[in-house]
Write a structure and sequence with these properties.
Elements lengths: L5 H12 L7 E7 L4 H12 L6 E7 L5 H9 L5 E5 L5
Parallel strand pairs: 1-2, 2-3
């Protein structure tokens, strides 16, 4: 598993701060009864990025799933948007 050093992360933040333009990056992630540890790690990974002008769109197609629902509900970062997609018959 790769882990950047504190110095590397600081360099990335400094470099990003110097950019004139910081385009919005949209990350779309479908979720279907994802094991809670994987879902939690995905959220942590995205939210810890040094580039912060992004939106994470979680498309939940799990239906009622307490583990998924609890983790999604606990995420209060305003860059995270949840779409509850229901199966069409």
């Amino acid at each position: 598993r790769h882990q950047s050093s504190k110095e590397t992360l600081e360099h990335q933040r400094d470099e990003i701060a110097s950019w004139d333009e910081k385009p919005l990056i949209s990350i779309v992630t479908p979720v279907f009864r994802t094991p809670k540890e994987f879902l939690q790690k995905m959220l942590e990974s995205v939210l810890c990025q040094t580039y912060t002008n992004f939106e994470l769109i979680v498309v939940n197609v799990s239906g009622p799933c307490p583990d998924v629902d609890d983790i999604i509900a606990s995420c209060t970062d305003q860059r995270v948007h949840v779409i509850e997609a229901r199966k069409q018959d």
